[in-house]
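Researcher: Here's my situation. A collaborator sent me these components and asked whether they could plausibly form a single complex. I don't have experimental data yet, so a predicted model of the whole assembly would be a useful starting point for our discussion.
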Amino acid sequence: MKYMDETAVLKQIKSRIRKNNIWKSVFFIATILALLALAMLIGRIISQGASFIDWDFFTNFSSRFPEKAGIKAALVGSIYLMLVVAPTSVILGVATAVYLEEYAKKNRFNDFIRANISNLAGVPSVVFGLLGLTIFVRMLGLGKSILAAGLTMSLLILPVIIVAAQEAIRTVPKEQREASYAMGATKWQTVFCVVLPAALPGILTGSILALSRAIGETAPLAVMGIPVIIHFLPDGLLSEFTALPMQIYDWAKRPQEAFQSVAAAGIIVLMIILVLMNSVAVMIRNKFQKRY
Amino acid sequence: MKKWKYLSMTALLGSTLLIGACGGETSGEGTNSGNGMEQTENGEAQLTGSVSGDGSSTVAPITEALVEEYKAVQPNVQVSVGVSGTGGGFEKFIAGETDFSNASREMKEEEARALEEAGIEFTKFEIAYDGITVVVNAENDWAKNLTIEQLKEIWIEDGKAKKWSDIDPSWPDEEIVYYAPGTDSGTFDYFDEVVLEGEDLVRSAQLSEDDNVIVQGVASDPYAIGFFGYAYYLENKDRLKAVKVNGVEPTREAIEKGEYTPLSRPLFVFVNNAKIKDSEAFYDFMKFLLENAGDMAEAVGYIRLPEEKYEEGLKKLDAIK
């Protein structure tokens, strides 16, 4: 006995499979297009700049001769900058997220704060540059120092870190907190020993991605007047410095064509740093996520 | 697994606290503090201190070269120079944040007034010549020579789209495409003053802080016109054509002899007098700058001043010390 008409089913299935294939190829093409653009960009940069990358490129200061120009001051400056940005933004960001998620009561005022933090994440970076120039460089008299730039960059990425940390804390199951309370733990013990460790992968991933944004930003530094021509290494957090994106931009503006290649070499270095940072973020996520 | 997590968290917090603590200990020096002198083994005076400047992107290549060379002479003097454009540089000079300011135009009245209000005395030094070069596409075989009046006619905003044939009926009936330096640059200001005489630049002009964008733009459009500093023309001679202005071609000789008027202009360094008095290192750097600016300017594509001008500058420098 037949329960269904096989030919009719086959016919229908054929058209469904076809539809399926069409959509599959649409999505595939979309992915490939994005990847292709990226590959072309990277390919061009590498073919242009790779020949300029050698040991001297890392140990020389910038120069009027393209073959002698190096990235030393900018690389060291960017590392110093990260030494300021990473602790300030992560500590402040995570603390704010913990407060908002664990302690703050649900009322209008706290909702207002939450909404504003999300809004802050969308403020253009130039605005943060102006803020940094007014407050840190001029009012607090920090000058065009690593500290002033670092604090400005911290403010820039703070909203991103807060939002990421909030999301991470929110994903920690309520049962875990309740179990902790049931064992007699205090709020602080629960937060520090249960919630934060569970949320750590999310927090770290978000923070590292935010930090890689900070390392590539030019606009706030340009607004603050961070110098570009610098032939010394910073000797403290109040020292003047320059950063990778500023140096790259300066090279790209030079009249000599060879400097375009030097700029490309600088971009490769910046890109490698970004890829390294992002892979650390991915590693952390993979290492911890398996547990749930 | 769990240990790993605690470990990394303690490491995270620990390291941040540690770095924070380190940060507190470093008592850095301000921008322009310290000008001690040390004797080296060979008895030569080694200066220490820091010098900071900002300003024109046109002057920047000369400064870069000077800073590079100066490091070999005085390795302990820390010179830092920003590239915020002439206007941006003056803003920081007025705020007292910089010791010197590079400029590719004269100081404006309001800038001078602001300096007076801030109580900052300054001295102007000429360091090199530049010739603003008007360029067209390599295929452009009609605009070989333009008078200043024609330039004004081309670049002024008069409310309608302009064609080359509007300037001269024998020229092609095609719209002019404009590329110009950004409004924060001294090059723009200078052009604005001598060619446009204060009137508005065509609104359709594409402005860019990066002169290479102008090079690219003009090189890729047969009906384009643009202008920028001589150094950019020198590097792109094979892709662009320079237009004669009032019959004079922008060449090294014409600019040096002052024949390429009115588009040849001096490049300046403005110096804060008080800081020269305060800082031995700054004085020494400025002396080095005036002694070597000619060579360095030539090296990066600008034109040296007559020797007397540098000597005059050195005398001025000694006078304010």
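Model: Some features of this prediction you could bring to your collaborator: Chain A is about 75% helix and 0% strand. Chain A touches chain B through 47 residues (CB under 8 Å).
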